[in-house]
Write a structure and sequence with these properties.
Helix content is 28%, strand content 24%. By secondary structure, the protein is α/β, with parallel strands linked by helices. β11 and β12 form a beta hairpin.
């Protein structure tokens, strides 16, 4: 049997201040290939290049990855602030339409970090540009040195930093086989108000929403705020998530 195909969304980037390119982090690709057992296929996160109908006919699932750019606040009724740049308008347009299409057409969908936030916005939810600014919340951004530079050791940056309490009897609790997990944390923006059909499946110890599913979705439609793509080859929590995604991809492929 052929391996299922997963469309992995690209992110706008400028190389050498002049070349516009689309990028995907390699760890996302490796997680899809090595743990979900599928063939990763990058597609452009821009509507004028990628046709959603054609894309969903060619793949068995979609992975919406994390990215440096925030979802533009006009998509959830907030005025933009230069402090919260950069933005990626084309990915916004692509992802928000694609999410609804995946759910409507029973195409498995996994959202990570920005992808998780996009899933919430697609169903009418809102985001906060800096979760750490909300009273009582921890700093969810990546660890930095005293001089403000990002820590040079990826194992420190992506280390598990806090607990996530899973909803009793929920999808994530069943996948993980427990009611509490530990995850990494590398984000500023986060969910403020859940959107329609967005079911909260996991919450950090400070109240930050960390895991969601789309209610009544006819297929796999899950999102996580943490970077599950970093180490699913060895991390049992992230491995369980990508394994479940892989099973959904196989089911979609067989049904096609």
């Amino acid at each position: 049997m052929k391996r299922p195909v997963v469309g992995v969304i690209g992110n706008a980037h400028v190389v050498n201040d002049r070349h516009n390119v689309q990028l995907v982090g390699q760890r996302n690709m490796k997680a899809v290939a090595e743990v979900a057992g599928a063939l990763p296929l990058m597609f452009a996160g821009t509507p004028d290049i990628t046709d959603i109908d054609a894309l969903l006919q060619a793949v068995d699932g979609i992975l919406l990855t994390g990215a440096r750019a925030n979802v533009h606040p006009t998509h959830f009724g907030v005025e933009p602030d230069p402090r919260h740049e950069p933005y990626d308008h084309e990915r916004d347009a692509m992802a928000l339409s694609l999410i609804k299409a995946c759910v409507e057409r029973s195409v498995p969908l996994l959202g990570i970090c920005r992808g998780f936030q996009e899933m919430n916005v697609a169903f009418g939810g809102t985001l906060h540009p800096e979760i750490r600014d909300i009273p009582g919340r921890m700093n969810h951004r990546m660890p930095r040195l005293e001089n403000g530079e990002i820590h040079p050791d990826p194992d420190v940056v992506f280390a598990d930093r806090h607990e996530v309490r899973l909803a009793e009897g929920g999808v994530f609790a069943r996948l993980m086989g427990c009611d509490c997990i530990r995850v990494n944390s590398l984000h500023g923006q986060g969910i403020l108000e859940p959107g329609r059909r967005v079911v909260i499946e996991g919450v950090a110890e400070d109240g930050t929403i960390e895991a969601i599913r789309i209610a009544d979705a006819p297929c796999f439609a899950l999102g996580v705020q943490w970077h599950a793509e970093y180490d699913p080859q060895s991390n049992p929590v992230n491995r369980a998530l990508f394994k479940a995604f892989g099973e959904a991809l196989e089911s979609h492929q067989k049904a096609a």
